[in-house]
Amino acid sequence: MEPESDPSLKEAKIVIELYGRDDKGRSITVLYHRFRPYFYVVDLTEDERGALEKDPEVVEMEEVELEVKGVKRRATKVYLQHPFKVPQYRDRLQDGEGFRVLAADIPYIFRFLYDLDLGSTIEAEGVVLGGKAVDGSPAGDGVARFNTDIVLYADSLKDTRPFEVPLKVLSFDIENFLKRRFIATVGWSVAELPLGGVEGIRKGSIEDDDQRALLKKFRDFIIEEDPDVITGYNIDGYDLEYLYDSVKEFFTSKVERDHVLGWSRDFSPLSKRGYRNWKLHGRVIADAWWNMKRELKPKVETLNYVSQMLFGEGKEEVDPLKIEELWEKERERVISYCIKDSELALRILDYTDVLRKYTDIANVAKLPLEDALNGTTSVLIDSILIREADRRGIGVPCTRHSGGGGRITGGYVHSIEPGLYRWVVVMDFKSMYPSIIIAHNICFTTLVEEGGIPAPNGAQFLPPEVKRGLLPDILSRLMKDREEAKRRAEEAKDEEERRYYSGLQIAIKILMNSFYGVFASSFYRFTDKRIGEAITSYARQYIKDIISALESEGHQVIYSDTDSIFVKSPYEDLEGSIRFGEELARRFSKGATQLEFEKVLDRLYSHGKKKRYVGRAVWPEEDIIIRGYETRRTDTFDLLSELQMQLFERILEGDTEGAVRIARETIERTRRGEVPTEKLVISRTVKAVEESKIRSTYVNPDSMANVQAARKLRDRGYELVPGMKVSWVVVNASRTPQVVEPFVDSESFSAKPDYDYYAERLISTTLRILEPLGIGKSELLKGTKQSRLFSFGTAERRRGREGGPKDSSTLTLDRFL
Length: 817
Fold this sequence. Notes:
Layout: H1 7-11, E1 16-21, E2 27-32, E3 38-42, H2 46-54, E4 58-68, E5 71-80, H3 86-93, E6 101-102, H4 108-115, E7 122-130, H5 132-135, E8 150-159, E9 167-176, E10 183-193, E11 202-206, H6 211-225, E12 229-231, H7 235-250, H8 254-260, E13 271-272, E14 278-279, E15 284-285, H9 288-296, H10 303-311, H11 323-329, H12 331-352, H13 354-365, H14 369-374, H15 377-391, E16 419-429, H16 432-439, E17 447-448, E18 453-454, E19 460-461, H17 470-490, H18 495-519, H19 529-552, E20 557-560, E21 564-568, H20 574-588, E22 595-606, E23 613-619, E24 623-627, H21 638-652, H22 656-671, E25 682-686, H23 691-697, H24 705-715, E26 724-732, E27 739-742, H25 755-770, H26 777-780, H27 786-789, H28 795-801, H29 813-816
Helix pairs in contact: 9-12, 10-12, 11-12, 13-18, 15-18, 16-17, 16-19, 17-18, 21-22, 21-25, 22-25
């Protein structure tokens, strides 16, 4: 095909640019200009109409009818020339209630996707203007200058069935000097994800003592590689910021700066939109650290620790605080170190599988990958909900804060009595909140002041025979789609097909369960507290009714929470317990109450705290179930977590003496200092790192161990960003506040831990766990030097020393156990 041009494109005032890869794996830019921005105004006055008719920005006005708060209203659809002008008109015409100007805060590109009902994959027909695959160079000039294989001017667009193509990912890392602004090297790794193996990774680096030249080389490298995704480890908080500031320092003119930062597929510059929010046109920025943090939630978040945990290999041994010194003496060592960091970040992103996970979510929500990966839950829900509202002629209000009202009462929790239980069946409610919404027609479109069917909280909703709710219909469709995806996954002929449908059904489940959270919030466009409370009130009623029925028959309900019930089996064997669980599922699965038989536990143990238990599952598969004790919690040091696990294993085996013996031995070894220091590391997120922001974020920051550790790391030259976990070891708990020393996993630790402090923590936790078994302090510490163990401090004294984030209660061990 030969490059062509179209005069109408050059004359277009607004051109929508869509970027991606086609089904042959080629990068593509699709241009479309036949879509105008608009919004609605309810009951436009004659004066307002006259002013709009004379306004040169207004292209056209159209009279329509919309349903607003359950009533049909006359509305005017106002088309403008430019999307960025919409907020000005919204603010000018809006009333105090927020229901006069409608659909006026929907981003233009989302409005375009909604109206054409497009999703994450599209079919485009039109004229090929150029591209690297056509003429070997970036296409044309003007609006047609794009760095993709193909540039297409589309006459028509339509949604199409999702298909998968590998995404090209560039991971990079920079090494810079600390005393002056100087980038020594940019290490890079490139591969298509998902990885088939490390042999598929290409690696290299960019160096130049002339910083202007280095920054230009990196820009040219990005353009040449044309990646879909750019990643690295904490690039949002450090590397991108450093590069961005370097360009501002070394290039004086805006034209030069925009050119050197022109990493986008349309050569527009990298832009920053708030903290950690970087944008490139046509490329997704996916920080490997951030995605690892939210998917894996490790105790320590350093690149070295996570790499060792996942791959059994870590960073190369280079002191990051001595880069400038090493650059003069061992340049190749620094380069190798930097390249390795970029490779590890790439492999971590691949391991999290977030690109496939959020591609699946994007397919269900009908949004681009970037918006699914980096957007908010309300963006996903909007995409589904607003399309359906438009089809039904329902006015879409602008996002607003409902204000006040307090928190919504959650689900019912049936407290567990302390002790060890044998043969317990676990019943689980299938998609409980979505099922309740469907069964009771709960929706903002069916909510009425009177004449409806009352929910347990008093809110009234019209029955479906009077008016079908928009939300129940959406969830019914999603539920059917999920069942179909699960069926297809089971019947798949190959692994690729199985993975696709399995990922799809998981994505549907995630979105279905997100609807309640959005409607229960105080900031969504369709928010009404009565809706969220109606859903949870039905859930509480369901669970209480089932518990009442079971107890009236003499069955012991051991525990229940929002969506599960634990019942003591009348049979002391697996076969009988399975029959009992299956019978309960048949009896109590009616309408919205779909009770599934989930598992059989041959032993269940709790020390009686709400939502805290441990059990051994023996059906349908063997597993240890731990809830509430949070053995992986980062502010619980590893030695304590390991001791808890050992205690649970012994308790579930019925070996109380063994549990006491292990606890006693661990406490004594700790007191003597015979435990590895890395087993004593505590980690916690620090919300601010700059001193001024620390003071404004925390009520009493000087008393907080995580702030103390962060300050010491910052003063030693380590790069820190808000939201990152810092690690430390307590070295003196007798002082107020306690003294801690930062722990960096790749460096030696020379300070002496306060072993008495750690021994006391072990004793406190052990006593809480073993107390229901009749084990007190005297039994636990028999034969140990207990007087010394308790020779300092108390829990109350520690609580008095610790601070916390503003409007948050103090976090202490008592809160965890």
